[in-house]
Amino acid sequence: MKSIYVGNISFETTDEQLRDLFSAHGDVKSVKLINDRDTGKPRGFAFVEMDDDNVESAIVATDGVEFAGRNLKVNLAKPRGVWRMRRPRH
Q: pLDDT tens digits for 3-36?
């Protein structure tokens, strides 16, 4: 199973809407919309987990597609912690 990053999501988008979009390309195991820890408001991105066999075709089919008035940014999710690595400031 692999995780797909889905960015530039409308703040009104629901888990079910994303599940419907990606299920056209294979079996969706989970959808997780990310909210801000402090405010609880949506951050505009999510992670969708699918079987390895369907991930590549789902990414190709949905990247750049207009969804709820926004063009989605879709790619293979990076392992947790990679996003947090930043260069030190001097």
A: 999 999 999 999 999 999 999 999 999 999 999 9
Domain CATH number, residue 40: 3.30.70.330
CA–CA distances in Å: residue 82 to residues 49, 70, 86: 18, 26, 9
| Diameter of the chain measured on Cα atoms | 48
Q: Tens digit of pLDDT for each residue in 62-80?
A: 999 999 999 999 999 988 7
* H or E segment and range at residue 4: strand 2-7
Task: For residue 8, give its domain range.
Answer: 2-76
Q: Which candidate, 65, 83, 77, places its Cα nearest to that of 22? A: 65
